[in-house]
């Protein structure tokens, strides 16, 4: 038994919040059917008051570099960043959207290859019918014909489509930003890591959902290739069983399956599995975030405090926690 576990103070999570960075924050505006918990100004003020160093805003509907510009002007004392998620409402893998985001507001800090409109996500969302999971593509022909067909895919073999190549070239030409794989499949995420190396992209983050699809050996290989791996509290602690949408305005497309407890536990065994991942892959390769902002969960700053408390209970050292919540994200963002 680790004797230091019984010597930790009640205030230690608050102390570890000082200087922490959350690279995955969702703060309004959002769909009226699924509003956020706080607006970006509130999120930044709360994080600043807790002593956090920086936040990265993510928005599946629009680039968040403009949001970061506004918040930075109104909430000094904390660094805020945004970027672009290449959703289908942006036209998918769209070089023009990336060019715009790089030059809009504070300028994009990341480019993500989709969230809830990737082929991987579109083909796995659904609802429970008579207690059994049924995919939307099987329930609704319109969904299959429209959303599935237009969903974002990363080709696993050459040739590389012109649009994808152009986006990768743009990221490579701006070494201060990082490539976020987004919610693609595990195979697609590894392919993006490979392509990033080919195009000379220095900063790569495998998004938490994609990490969940990789074996521990694959994670170690990706880390050895220079990628950071994201793990978010929202993947482990959420609002199970409650239908909600993060992308669609159609009420029938309220996803239930991702919130099924058996699904949320994940392939790597929940929070205890996270500890094993950290020990196997190495904390120097992992970036921890909250992915908080949904209305039914606490504000993102409270999510980060909760994450820190969980890590302490899992007997991770203060140094390991600081590495994954402060130093690694700072390196990803290019902060000194």
Question: Explain this structure to me?
Answer:
With 336 residues, the protein is an alpha/beta fold. The protein contains 15 helices and eleven strands. A six-stranded parallel sheet has the order 4-5-8-9-10-11. A three-stranded parallel sheet has the order 1-2-3. A two-stranded antiparallel ribbon has the order 6-7. Residues 259-265 have low confidence and may be disordered.
Tell me the strand percentage band: 5-15%
State the separation between the terminal residues, measured CA to CA: 36 Å
Tell me the Rg in angstroms.
19 Å
Which stretches are low in confidence, meaning pLDDT under 50 for 5 or more residues running?
259-265
Tally of alpha and pi helices: 15
Query: Mean pLDDT score, rounded?
Result: 93
Count of beta strands: 11
Q: For the largest beta sheet, what order do the strands appear in spatially? A: 4-5-8-9-10-11
Strand/helix succession: HEHEHEEHEHEEHHHEHEHHEHHEHH
Q: Name the helicity range.
A: 40-55%
The 3D shape can be described as globular
| Biggest sheet details | 6 strands, parallel
Structural class: alpha/beta
